Amino acid sequence: MRQTRRRRAARGAAVLAGGLLLLGACGTAGTDPAGTESAPVEPVQVTAGEGWRLLGEGLTGEPYRTGVATTDDQLDALWRSAGLDGKPPAVDWEREVAVWFGAVYGTGCPVRLDGVVVVEDLLHAELTLPGEPAACPDDANPHAFVVAVARDVLPDGPFHVQLEARDPYPGEPEERTVVDVGLDSPGSTVSDDEVHTAPPGPQEPPLVVDGDDLPADRSVRYVYRADPSCDTPVLGPLDGSLWRPADGEAPWDVADGTELTLHPLGDGAREMLASSPQTDQLLVRLDDGHGCP
Length: 293
Hints:
Layout: H1 5-18, E1 29-31, E2 37-40, E3 48-49, E4 52-58, E5 65-69, H2 72-81, E6 96-105, E7 112-119, E8 122-128, E9 141-150, E10 159-162, E11 177-179, E12 195-196, E13 220-223, E14 235-238, E15 241-245, E16 259-264, E17 271-275, E18 280-285
Parallel strand pairs: 8-10
Antiparallel strand pairs: 1-2, 3-4, 4-9, 5-6, 6-9, 7-8, 10-11, 11-12, 13-16, 14-15, 15-18, 16-17, 17-18
């Protein structure tokens, strides 16, 4: 079985700590004047911001999910998918659409929605990780946020919705909701045939080779070549550095010549995820100028 689910919460936390989370971070424990440790600080959830307002949220639904609604019936279905109780608040469909962000957190490590971001044809959440993400467990628990988004901030259609700017993690294509039509016109709706949770066809990531830079927010392909002079497997140089498996990862079991999919975790990040047909592994950046570890 591919080793994916438990690690994704920690990896997502690394992404959001560098830019946004998605995905799992701990509250910060303080120290009072007597020197005793205080309780973790819980994040304060805001209820509105520029171009959006919160309709409901809770530790429910599934993680790594998104969805869009443009009618009362669609919102009822979205509300149920998010696992929220009761009836959803009213939405002004002339001026708004509804969006579900199925975020994820590690146990005891809350995540907070701070806003909604629109960049070109992408709408994504701005999720904040209070505390220290590295201290959180690797489990993946859901935190649903359902928001009303003003139509006048939506991208032109078609567009897609994700938790973050980066591509969905391997095995979680449902995170990306693709909307095939524009919804910025007052009262416009989307049919079931015009919204789906994966691209309509395979989209092969670009191929990178040694010496190339890495994009901050999209996956790439890379052919692994074993270096017989190194006792520890290394990749690259990519993005100006060599990369090795992180401490605690399973033994490297990737044959020379295997094509990997690399998932960068942000511009200049010191970690990235490498997917092979056998497993997923977290890689760490070696310090500048370092060769074999």
